[in-house]
Amino acid sequence: EIVLTQSPATLSLSPGERATLSCRASQSVSIYLAWYQQKPGQAPRLLIYETSNRATGIPARFSGSGSGTDFTLTIGSLEPEDFAVYFCQQRSNWPLTFGGGTNVEI
Amino acid sequence: QVQLQESGPGLVKPSQTLSLTCTVSGGSVSGGFYWSWIRQLPGKGLEWIGYMSNNGSPFYNPSLESRVSISLDTSKNQFSLKLSSVTAADAAVYYCARGYCSSTSCYEYFQHWGQGTLVSVSS
To answer: Comparing A17-31, A69-83, B4-18, B30-44, which segment has the lowest mean pLDDT?
Structure first.
């Protein structure tokens, strides 16, 4: 099973600042990685798929990069609604696995 | 707009079978997507349980494979989860979800989710 390790666990930032979140895989997942946003009491929302492609309706301030084992989600300028937990997920190998999450807090 | 809604008992006794149904509206379960069940343990991350693939074959997380079954009911536009021999470790919020399709391909990432249903395990 591929383990995804996200860092930092918590990121404390202010609106307007840039957020950089990391996801590291225990073995290569090529580009087969996605990012999700989850707010309290809600289901996750798909942001980015295949490392760098924004899902339908996702604002351009969200971007993804990386390949192999190291991936980054960047939020260019934090909006108030962006404060949430972010998860990465790989589809390279079964079982599909998720990272433990990064909490982006104000 | 596709919508998914989980239903089923919120409380299951240890050793019994957890049964959940996901009702899909605004789209067909026979539409070639990945139809999945994912759970979130209290205060923790997400665990993929399994899915019905876009060719109609089920795939399960090996950690649960001996206890899990996912099926589609195209007549009711639903898909279901059965997890047998539950223990306290199976208490979680259970989500049904549909895979994401771009204009060219379908992927094992999940764009459409139900609201989630909390399942507790207790006698």
So the answer is: B30-44
Q: What share of chain B is helix, strand, coil (3-state, %, to 5)?
A: 0, 55, 45
Say whether A34 and B109 touch across the interface (CB within 8 A).
yes
Distances (CA, A) of A43 to A36, A46, B39, B65: 10, 10, 10, 24
Residues of B in contact with A95 (CB under 8 A): 48, 61-63
Among B59, B62, B111, whose Cβ lies nearest the Cβ of A55?
Answer: B111
The number of residues in chain B equals: 123
- What pLDDT does B97 receive? 97
Name the residue facing A99 among B45, B48, B109 (closest C-beta): B45
CA distances to A66, A73, A94, B11, B31 from B60, in Å: 28, 28, 9, 23, 20
Residues of chain B falling short of pLDDT 50: none
